[in-house]
């Protein structure tokens, strides 16, 4: 089949041609946008799930829905060891520009507060050349969001932003990807700011996305975070949605799949959106004609697996040290020994026993894997892969 017309898009955060299986989340967010803009109480939102389930894609889709409602939006990606002030200031600068408030004096005031918030990143008394600037051409507002206490500053900043948005009957949405990588102080401040917003009714919401242990990260920061956010677990697609993710783009190109081919594709991909796109692309390129058959899927499977082994699994495996790879392999073996479902957590003690070592001696490797985002711990003493099918990849690699 013509590779130029191949509709499938296996890319990190790249929106697939058919965003299947997320209608419920999109519809619920439309209600949130309307309620917040009207001053109704509504919680901020947190999306959680493994890598490859489409959290970033959904986060972008939700942001697009906010933009269509005339909201001001800004997005940032949290990174380990990076403070919140700089990336958040850039995101909020964009949000204010998108909001389109016509009172220049009010806008300049809020931009000045964002600038003062950003300048505190360099520390009190820093020289001008050492102060990072978010590209804002107005003077910093002294005495607002510049105390140096991130919690106080964030509450003041969000309050001013909310007032600006309320003036025009819209809202401001802050979209944070990889939210679990925020520092502890920044998480605490963000929770405090969201708590203040929920009490004041100002039209500002935070929409975060992260790994399955993100709720535990938030709860450890502020006990009330369990009531502060609305959590949505983003999982693999059900069979009907997975079929739609394949069939709809093919139909747009006047092509189709045999029913047996769709069943084979679901068995191979497990319904994970990234895998669906990878297999869809490989099958399309190698199938001689439409409709695509189960035999075509069998022929294309090695090509798809090879692509995933390099771009999805391999790139993560290469980040691990030899000792960390031993730990990962032991996790995969323990899961098989205990007949765990793919992706289930295993006991850290069992992993240590498999390696013939004391659990304490493996803490450095475990902690490093956690920081690298290769594993996560949803509960004390247990550990799981952040990537679906990673254990199978390790076992096949040998």
Automatic annotation (TrEMBL):
<keyword id="KW-0479">Metal-binding</keyword>
<dbReference type="InterPro" id="IPR041664">
    <property type="entry name" value="AAA_16"/>
</dbReference>
<dbReference type="InterPro" id="IPR009056">
    <property type="entry name" value="Cyt_c-like_dom"/>
</dbReference>
<dbReference type="Pfam" id="PF13191">
    <property type="entry name" value="AAA_16"/>
</dbReference>
<keyword id="KW-0349">Heme</keyword>
<keyword id="KW-0408">Iron</keyword>
<dbReference type="InterPro" id="IPR027417">
    <property type="entry name" value="P-loop_NTPase"/>
</dbReference>
<protein>
    <submittedName>
        <fullName>AAA family ATPase</fullName>
    </submittedName>
</protein>
<feature type="domain" description="Cytochrome c">
    <location>
        <begin position="166"/>
        <end position="317"/>
    </location>
</feature>
